[in-house]
Amino acid sequence: MRLDGIHHISAITGDAPGNVDFYTRVLGLRMIAKTVNQDDPSVYHLFYGDEHARPGADLTFFEYPGAVPGRPGAGMVHRIVWRVGCADALAFWASRLTDEGVTVTRGDGDSVRFADPEGLEHELVVSSSNDPALIAEHPDVPAEHALQGFEGVRAYSHRPDGSARMLEQLMGAERIGDEDRFQLRGERRGSWIAFDPAPENRGRQSAGVVHHVAFGTTDEDLPGWIERVAEARVPSSGFVDRHYFHSLYFREPGGVLYELATLEPGFTVDGPVEELGTTLILPPFLEPRREQIAARLTPLPDPRAGWAPAPSGATS
Ligand code: ZN
Fold it and tell me: Angle 107-111-114 (CA atoms, 0-180°, nearest 5)?
């Protein structure tokens, strides 16, 4: 029973139209689902990912309209690290982001760092793994430069020892390098979570802040994980049906909210892969109120207005 690295990452936006623009037009991700927050259907839950909506590249945002930028603190993920294919891709992104007015920093070693318009930090690094590249098609982003999925996340822990212990002893992670960085690798793929010393200021969950990070499992293994977490006396959500996957939520000792999410059924549960993200998806219990719900939502730009991916599908 091993976890397939990061399945998805969920964050908060106060500006859904700006969020769609940044992640689809600027970063070249595909909108793979547009649905509502099940607890508050007047706001969106937006999903971005690769062309086929595979686990490992899925970044989601809960919309809190008008929310001010938050601040990551102890117990929160503060940076999302993406893979790209080569050093040329780093140069491509440094130039593309700069042209968009985004401040770019070349990080230690070979990386590109920037933040989204609400302050959520990203870093691009050249992939050192053999995992399949999870890329989306975009008219202005050549396939060889596209983002390839998650390499890892960096978080602030207020109990680094406890964070390490849970990852190594409960979740099957392996420490890599000489920092607090832990690799979770399963049969399909892998990625890591690293912990940095927490800032003194308390964090604030709001726009531009990560809400939780999910690691990949399967329908076959999820019951085993639920049992293992219960045996370790870690409080958890128990089984949750998230429509696109099945989940278990629990908080690690350093404060970060973890989710384990299954491969199944995946985003094509709503229809063919070509149509992902094109229509508003509602859970069955909200379907009878579709018209009223749709009328109250923030109007969003169409991320693929005026173009369509090649019918052959250039991605692997
Ligand atoms: Zn989630």
Answer: 70
